Amino acid sequence: MVVPRSAVKITADDDYALYSVVVFKKVHDDFAQKLRENKFILRDFTYDESALSRQQQELAVAEVTERELWTELLRLSRTNFSEAYQVLVHLKVARLFVESVLRYGLPAEYVGLIIKPEPKTTKKTLSVLTTHFSYLGKTQGKQSDSSGAGVEDFAGEYQTIMEQEFLDFVLFEIPWID
Q1: Whole-model pTM above 0.85?
Q2: 8 A C-beta contact, residue 3 and residue 9
């Protein structure tokens, strides 16, 4: 029925396998019937030179189009990433100003610093900044309320803000891209 050594496994996955098999014309119908009985799916293949050349041309056009689109994407992403990063830094600076005014009041006399510590010295740098700017925490008004209910209401309303780390100085992290 099948031409000897003509069964070739083309591809396979977890559920299915695709084989190429050559059979004689006079037993084609019997072979197809046996495959259906064993719950195999038969797909007839006829070789067409024009279809093959057409597919190769389409593949070449698709490769050229992909290269053009890829270069356009790189150009746009370089431009827009730069602009987006500038906007991010601008928002962080505006947030630094607002946070400083809300914490320390007017007039807005403050100094903004950008520090890029080495990854190994991040904790040490934070502890040095905390000790250096510890005097800023003393200017914050500490209210002593005799009734504990007001503090609990305040904590309940602003719980997410209070769960964040609170330092004596304003600190914002900007992701650094090398």
Answers
A1: no
A2: no
Residue 20: which H helix or E strand, with range?
strand 17-20
End-to-end CA distance of the chain: 65
HSE, side-chain direction, 13 A CA sphere, residue 32 = 9
Tell me, rounded to whole angstroms, the distance of Cα 76 from its chain centroid.
18
- Residues 109 and 96: their CA atoms lie apart, in Å, by 12
- pLDDT tens track for 116-174: 778 788 888 888 888 887 777 764 444 444 444 554 555 555 555 555 666 767 777 77
User: CA 130 to CA 52: how far, in whole Å?
Assistant: 71
Residue type for 92, please? K
CB atoms within 10 A of CB 125: 13
